[in-house]
Protein 1
Amino acid sequence: MTRVLQRCVGGLALIGAATAIAGCFGSGGSSSSKQQGGNAGSAAVKRGGVFRIAANDGIDSMNPFTAFNSDSHNAFQNIYSFLVQYDTKTFDYVGDLATSWKAQNGGRDWVFKIRTGVKWSDGRPLVAKDVADVMNWATSPKLEGLGLVGEIFGGHLKHAAAPDPQTVVLHYDQPIAVVLSKLAKWPILAPQQWLKFKTVTAAGQFQNTAPITSGPFVVTSYAKRQLLLTKANPSYYGKKPIIDGWGLKQYDNIDAAIQALTSREIDAVEAVPGPSFPSLEANKSLNAVAAPSSFVSDFIINSNPHKTSHRELLNPKLRQAFADAIDKESLVRLIHANKGEPADSIVPKAYGDLPGTQKPSHAPGLPQDRYDPAAANRILDGLGYKRGARGIRTANGAPMNYTVIVPTDAYTGVTRVSDLFKRWFSAIGVGLTIKTFDSAAAYNEIIGTQAATKTPANSYKSFDLSLWNWTSRPDPESLLLVATTGEYGSLSDTGYSNPAYDRDYKRQFTEMDPNKRLAILWDMQRMLARDRPYIPLVWADKLQAWSTKWTGLTETPQGFFNESSNANMLNVHQVG
Amino acid sequence: MVRGLDYALKRVGFALITLFVVITMNFFLFRVLPGNAVTNLGRDARLSPQAQHALRVQFGLDKSTAAQYVAYLRQLAHGNLGISYQSRAPVLDELTTDLKNTIPMVGVATLLAIVLGLATGVIAAWRRRTWADHGSVATALIFYAMPVAWLGLMLLLLSNGALPAGGMYDDFAVHTTLLSKWADAGKHMILPAATLALGLYGQFTVITRSAMLETIGEDYVLMARAKGLGNARIITRHVLPNALLPITTLIALSLGFVVGGAILVETVFSWPGIGQAVFRALSERDYPILQGAFLVLAASVIFCNLIADLLYLKLDPRTAA
């Protein structure tokens, strides 16, 4: 399992989505308010056809409250409407169902104006009350614990109101700076389909195989672990799709998917493994695209201050020595087929500027690690960790032999990576034992307890090191969250617990001035760079391929089929 | 007759005890694995601690293991296999769909393997110590020793796009007749069924050859030859029927495994069957699916073995003695 939360738009500027600027009425926290229409803009546009995609992780559920896989949410992006979505080039917010928005009352109230004449796929009119009713239903106490709701509303939504058919007002219990970021992931669900469920269990068990939607495509058939097939929604309010529909076909084996692509059984592959990429690049009938992504691999060092064994791992100087011992350039070359770059933060550069700031989300001036085993040895010598039997150093009376937890299903080239790390660490007198698990078991090893409430005192106490990765959504908040103490037992994989960092996380959450908020986000990244719960390794490129018979796709850090925007499925078309 | 009935009742009794042991082991086996459904789901940013707690309560994971076991037995007694942790759909419905997909493919593959194995085994035994014997046994053993996933990938590459790479149908094609849909399904079945059949047939070859050789040495076969009977008649009338006992056991076991699917083959060829479901359920710690799938598998193996035991009575009445 790649840890999913979700880089600048790649060099492949194909036919971009034209971004029409619509007016923002009033001023708000994140005041940018645009309409993303999209325009194929190609001289040779052939209409029709079904764009056939080989799924990446596949659709695990059609129920937005229980779906986990990225493909499920990518599909939702293209069948449901959302109040706002992202521009695929700038990653600024653009209107979808909402035409404009503003924050009021210091960011406690958010007012959205929505389009007129919108219809659900069952023909009923979609009005503001529908949007508000579902939000109130989902956040009601009787449905506490329903998936997705916590992530989007975080328990802060007091009430959603619809004073008129085209206005939705969200009342929060505190200023919320990330409302747009959160709502860009909240599908507009049909009350006639959802409000009938009175319990979390009932809502969770609803399979939703024939969803009532209002986005650009409607579902025509869904077969679990096989296929999702859609057709263009004739009553869609926005730019009409050029294709008849798209389909997502499940392949459990990537070699089979690539074979299907080269034999034209399908038109595109969402995720191409590095070793297969050169052959696809050489294939004249395919566009093989490598573009900066939000994927970052990382080396985790247990940072729980209550760690019981190998407490030397908490020493920042030792962490610097470890960073000096790792050759990130070799990882890019050997593991990622030269498609990526050494990382200095878990926050990717790929998403560009934080909306409203014209400054990058990724903090500038972070310290750059350089592969320098001699410097690493000097640091360890300086710390008094003398070499003993078989060249392994001793710290606090114990040999510096550490176990590295690696989730095999989430880490590419695990055997080769393991060998590289063993060699690099052996050169500085540190022994590594690689212990592989699947993701669920690896995470359990890291947490180290089954206690219902996880705290620094009762969890994350025994593990040493791990290799894993993150992908993230555009706002860095979603990724920086994972290092807060509040995520113990949930998203934390480092045991990092720093009150100053936790305070900053809360501050940025309510800071309505984007520039001030960005300063906090940069501070948080600098704290992580200083304390090193993670040694960021590689920002790997997203490798994808599609038939040259198709064009109109803009590469994004999440790929051409993504959960940020429906622009690609609106613009993709056959070459005329 | 009474002795035969006594034998049959004993076999049924053993089968029921075995089934209960399997049900119990099924329950505890997966819970020994590190990781659990909730910590797995807890990696999802969408799940707050409250949501994790709600999931524990919803799936009874907040109770002691013993209480969960009792609840599991009670559910089973009512024919309820529970709710999938991942899809939240009834396990019985999920597995029924998977079984409908698995049985045709694995069934065809097993039948192919049995036919191929019996034929090559008979030839190898009859042409003992000739190139036909060495060739067929060596080929069977080579295929048997090959990792089935690797074999599948090699067949996939060798087909070079001539056969579909995955799935049960061309999901994007419009089938106007049932015949065209079946033809499409047949085309999609070729690679996975061939992979599985090649991987399986070696065991039938070896067992058939060995059983045949034992029988060929019997006096009554010598007598049949002395009487001037033709080879085909000797094999079909005198050798093969008497060599069937071990072969019957193997066939019964193999048919039992048909419902278990073929995890690796189904995964390589994206065949949406029970093997693929088990593979996913393992990584997702979806205990109800795993328990359900293994129960179905165990029950079918036990049932087929029971049938084989009862067939013994017919094939060799001395068994009841």
Protein 2
Amino acid sequence: MLGEGIIKGMAETARNFLGSYVSEDRLTTVQYPEERLPQNEAARNFPFLVFDGKDPHIGLRCVACQICEKECPPQCIYIVKSKDKKPDYIGKPQFYPSVFDIDTSVCMSCQICVEVCPFEAIKMDTEYELSTSDRFGELLLNKDKLAKSNEYYQKIHPTEAAEVDERLAAEKAKAEAKAKAEAEAKAKAAALPKPTVPIPAAVPAGAK
Amino acid sequence: MSLDQIFVFLKQVVVGWMPLQCQPLVSAILSVAAIIGVFASLFAITTVLERKGLGRIQNRYGPNRVGPYGILQPAADGIKALIKEDLVPRAADKFVHFIAPLVLVAPVFLALAVVPVGRNMVAIDMDGGVLFFFAVGAATELAVFMAGWSSRNKYSLLGAMRAIAQMISYEVPLILSAVTVVMMVGSLSTVKIVEAQAGYTGWLPDWYVFTPWGFAGFILFMIAAMAESNRSPFDLPEGESEIIAGYYIEYSGFKFALFFLGEYIGMFAVSGLGITLFLGGWHAPFEFLTWVPSYIWFFGKLLALIAGFIWVRGTLPRLRMDQLMNFAWKFMLPMALINLFAAGVWHFMPPGVVRWAVCAGLVFGPYALLGRTLFENKNITKRVYRYAE
Amino acid sequence: MSVTFAIIAVLTVASAVAVMTLRNLVHCALSLMLTFVGLAALYLQLNAQFVGFAQILVYVGAVAILIVFAILLTRGVEPPEQKIFSSSSMGGLAVAVAVFAVLAATIGSSSVLHAVLQPSHEVSVRQIGEQLMTRYVLPLEVVGLLLTAALIGAVIIAMRDEEGK
């Protein structure tokens, strides 16, 4: 009958109007900036550098291997290796970056730097409110601005961070076990009475 | 002196203070100032209500930043309109471009002079009130043409011609539905038309909308009113997604605000006339509610009609020009004429159920038949997609 | 001769002169509308409410729109450049003066001009309707027939244009 469609349409509209006062799914607006939608765990925006512990300089995981600089497609990473070394999380002395710049106005968030980093040092951040008033100065993030703690990483990507921590802890345990075994062997060798004739050094038990 | 007549009393007091010579002048000025003040503030409120209403229909908030719940938004809009730069195209006809908004706004305010807002509250009680209303409404089409032509822009000219064609086509059903009521009352004066709907039969009021011909006439009148004031779904001449703004593309700042004002006040004026003709003017709907002042009823009904306009705007898609014209000439004009005939039959039959049945059949039968015949050679089926093999 | 009549008369005559002398065709059409409004004001001043409002409704609302549509759809939007006074203007002026002289003489020598003015009572629409239905019903029907013929003719012309394409 003529007009039936119009009446049905108007009933639907009225339901929308009245429902928007009572139910959530008929009023889907998020009042930004007072409320924000929560992001997915796998969301990513721009990269950041992870450091363990409290001091961003001492705990920085990055060893300035420059793989990410070479792999970055728009070449937005600039690294200058330091001259001296500092110990990493295992204890081995490594280089560290004295200058680490990422130009976020060029970065396209492709995550390639994260995928190629062998030291779990660079990860993707989820922060998107990065507007500044100075386009070229403030969008170039240097090492101080990029370094964020491991606790922050665990907060934004919990499962990833748990996985990374597990892997690093396993490696650390392996390295510690190796160091302990070496130390034991050395101690054993030192505890034996010193022979008059030089004999070849004893091979530690269990080691190859 | 009751709450109902408080404004009439106030006006008499103020006019009594003036010397005898200029009393008519002061009385006229007070009426005019009251009309402009009330309806311009109603315009401001309507813009916010419309945006918030449309927002809620579309699953979002309306404006809610300026003032609590966004009610101060018209102030922000007004300031923006005033301080915007007034661009006039170099090739435009300066004089006509300047006076077109004025020629639009002046007649629509004039039309509000014959609408009775409350008991004894009409600016001019003319013998030919309804005729005056339609005569003045016809002058707005001229303003549309002037606006469209003076911009020297082929799109705005096209929009103006389409707008005028639409307004003229829908004026015929509008006037015919109004003439039905005038015929039944026997007078063109709006005050007499409201007085003729004063009684209560049983618990229903005597309004004309509760008769079969009045109901059909009311619906026809409201549809034609929507088309006259270029409101969705009839806003092709000013469709924002098609012709940008149609005949007022080249206007900016305050002149644009004046066009906007003219359109909304036109909406109020024609709704006010619809209330006067069909909904009993300022009368209360039930007998036990007559203690509420008359102007409260009038503005309540006006707000209900405005809510209806907003509701339809949020629901229906825009009509195309040829669909619009077909609807006016092939459907609404025959229905208006048949309605006139049904009203005549109602007048001459004795009151009772038979009269109701006959008139309802006379109105509803052609409606169903017309609907069927107008659609039977359209083949509206689900769309079939063919893909390249 | 009241002030109101003087003002309205000056307005009407001035816009009529503007219709003849303005260069831009659409400006002429708009001045013609102003002339119609002036005429309606004169009717209203004589207390003929129905005729005055009908004048606005019909002339300004419909005839003027028809005129502007005709201008737009046939001449285009460019204002044509032409002289106001053509070469045959002297002959036209002579004819106009002759017609005016005849009309003025007729009106001046009629008896109505010197008759005692009775106070005119307001003619209500009801009386007009009654007269139309009783005394002038034949002219009413003939006018209706004429309008119907014009409507049908317009539809046929438009239809024939479509078929001829």
